[in-house]
Amino acid sequence: MSGSDGCQEETAVEREVLLAMQPSYFLRQLSSSMQNASPDGKQGVPDLIHLCPFQNLEDPSTLSYSVVVIGLDTYQWYHQLLQEPITGQENETLQLGPEQSMTRHQIEEALVVLQLRGNINVLFLETWQELAQHVSAVTRAVAQRPYKKHQEKQPFSFCAKGKWASGVHIGKDGK
């Protein structure tokens, strides 16, 4: 590719894909995929297409997919409070959808399927600041990857082989 000033531009395919989701969307998609897996109530394997529609873009072995859900604990706590009866008013609870009634166990089962079958990592964070710190750390690690590969190829400095090992011989008296 050639730029307007005659310089060559290079493009590279990103190998790390990060998708940030709101808790409501994540739980709705997770609930939908679980229902599609077991419409008759029997235990089944969730359909990953409903949870991560980007899954089929490329081969999961070449790309690393990560889903970040921000504020899931707070979201579940808030909706749990909404389900509790209001004092002084009997049978006046707010009926929530199936995505808000998912148990921690159901979520963990789906996470195992995502990791094993879909090669998708899921990270639960509480704030956007935690997401910024995570992205910064991952970016730093990816940027250092070529340097670390170069360092791994270098022989150890204490290795006895090589030209540098043929230095000046020092006797027992230090001369």
What tags apply to this protein structure?
alpha/beta, three-stranded parallel sheet, 5 helices, 3 strands, about 40% helix
What would your notes on this structure say?
With 175 residues, the chain is of the alpha/beta class. The protein contains five helices and three strands, in the order βααβααβα. It has helices at 23-37, 48-51, 72-83, 104-118, 128-153, and strands at 16-21, 64-70, 120-125. It has a three-stranded parallel beta sheet.
Précis, in short:
This protein has 5 helices and 3 strands.
How are the elements arranged and paired?
Elements lengths: L15 E6 L1 H15 L10 H4 L12 E7 L1 H12 L20 H15 L1 E6 L2 H26 L22
Parallel strand pairs: 1-2, 2-3
InterPro entries: Mms4/EME1/EME2 (IPR033310)
Main location: nucleus
GO cellular component, one term: Holliday junction resolvase complex
